Amino acid sequence: MTTPDFETLANDIKLWAAELGFSQVGITDTDLTEHEPTLADWLAKGYHGDMEYMARHGMMRARPHELLPGTLRVISVRMNYLPEQAAIAHVLSNPQLGYISRYALGRDYHKLMRQRLKKLSDRIEQAAAELMARPFVDSAPILERPLAKNAGLGWVGKHSLLINHQQGSFFFLGELLINLPLPMDAPLTEEGCGKCVACITACPTGAIVEPYVVDARRCISYLTIEQDGPIPLELRPLMGNRIYGCDDCQLICPWNKFTKASQEPDFAARDNLHAPELLALFDWDEDYFLKQTEGSPIRRIGHRRWLRNIAVALGNAPVSPSIILALEQKRQQEGVDDMVLEHIEWALEQQMIGLAKVGRKTERLIRAVDKGMPSHARFTELK
């Protein structure tokens, strides 16, 4: 093929990608050399936690050409995922409900985007028979955000996520590695965070340890999804009612006021996950959990982590006889995993501590009434 044909092909690829439902597409090369020292330092500090595969793959994450020998270009795509009526504030502000990261409310994006990228690859192959291509959607060691930045899709924010001027950060990323020398898109020369540190101060657990650097070991998304063992005691009270992932650093970001709802039907929120009651979720047995999360990214954490996460949220909820009863019943069930049991006992302890505080406040109020205190003085007694 001649160079002008590649220019035409690059334009066609963007049209085909739009037809397949991708929100934006850009083309870049594989050079991520400048990111290798940062990656090495992040790994050396242990910020990857128990995600040992990150250390095992090492610098391969910054060398896409090693994943597919002969790779010359990376086609980087993004797809908006925020559903209509996301109800974010409604759920987060109600401790009786379980908050699930909004990306996980619909169908698992991995398969959907990978299938779309495969279709895009097939279209390209019709125009260029010599094509070698391989799609990736969180399925290989690859630094997708720097690649997307180089392809002009946005800039990496201080929370380490990609931000787009028109869409904020509520989107998925995917890559198609190819062996064709397509013309490349220009990266953004300026990032839009400026002096803003809202995401850093808003993180419930202080996981953004410095601008652009996240210690996964403190991140609620890591704790509720990736980590298989007990959640550190000091972090449990900070998790609130977040039972699968966390969106706080995105919610506070000023750029997300430009976010547009996804029109992809598969990303529509499921009724059973949109604003679910914690006690109802805690009652799911393993078979029911698997049935209710079929086709959802939530399924991969398994039932034991699911119960662990909900137990923490129940421990953080206001004192409730219903919660105490549910925790006691679950604790007495046969076959409850030891790790889950430890979190249930912690949650019961938190409920009992709260119950004792309520009791002390009630006693003070009774004494205040007996003393004939005016209403404003009674309020002071309850503080």
- Biggest β-sheet: strands ordered side by side in the sheet: 1-2-7-4
* Radius of gyration, taken over Cα atoms and rounded to an integer in Å: 24 Å
End-to-end C-alpha gap:
77 Å
Number of continuous helical runs: 16
Mean pLDDT: 92
Low-confidence stretches: none
Q: Write the element-wise H/E pattern from the N-terminal end onward.
A: HEHHEHEHEHEEEHEEHEHHHHHHHH
Give keywords:
single chain, 383 residues, alpha+beta, four-stranded antiparallel β-sheet, two-stranded parallel sheet, 16 helices
Task: Describe the overall structure.
It is a single chain. The chain has 383 residues and is of the alpha+beta class. Helix content is 43%, strand content 10%. It has 16 helices and 10 strands. It has a 4-stranded antiparallel beta sheet, with helices on both faces. A two-stranded parallel sheet has the order 3-10. A two-stranded antiparallel ribbon has the order 5-6. The radius of gyration is 24 Å and the shape is elongated.
Question: Summary?
Answer:
By secondary structure, the chain is α+β, with helices and mostly antiparallel strands. It has helices spanning about 5-20, 35-45, 50-55, 90, 110-125, 145-150, 200, 220-225, 250, 270-275, 280, 285-290, 300-315, 320-330, 340-370, 375-380, and strands at about 25-30, 75-80, 100, 135, 155, 160-165, 170-180, 210, 215, 240-245.
Secondary-structure topology with pairs:
Layout: H1 3-19, E1 24-28, H2 36-44, H3 52-57, E2 73-80, H4 88-92, E3 99-100, H5 109-127, E4 133-136, H6 144-150, E5 155-156, E6 162-163, E7 171-178, H7 198-202, E8 208-210, E9 213-214, H8 220-226, E10 242-244, H9 248-251, H10 271-274, H11 278-282, H12 286-292, H13 302-316, H14 321-332, H15 338-370, H16 375-382
Parallel strand pairs: 3-10
Antiparallel strand pairs: 1-2, 2-7, 4-7, 5-6, 8-9
Helix pairs in contact: 1-5, 13-15, 14-15, 15-16
